[in-house]
Amino acid sequence: MTQLLLVEDDRRLSDALAEILREHGYEVDTVNNGKDGLDYAASGVYDVVILDVMLPLMDGFHVVSELRRKKISTPVLLLTAKDAVPDKVQGYDSGADDYMTKPFSPTELLAHLRALTRRKGEVMFEVLDFADISLNLESNDLSCRGETIRLRMKEFLILKILMENAGRIISKETLLERAWGIDSDADANNVEAHISFLRKKLRFLDAHAQIETVPKLGYRLIAVEADDGDAATPDQSAAKEGADE
Question: Looking at the domain 3-123, which fold is it?
Answer without folding.
Answer: Rossmann fold (3.40.50)
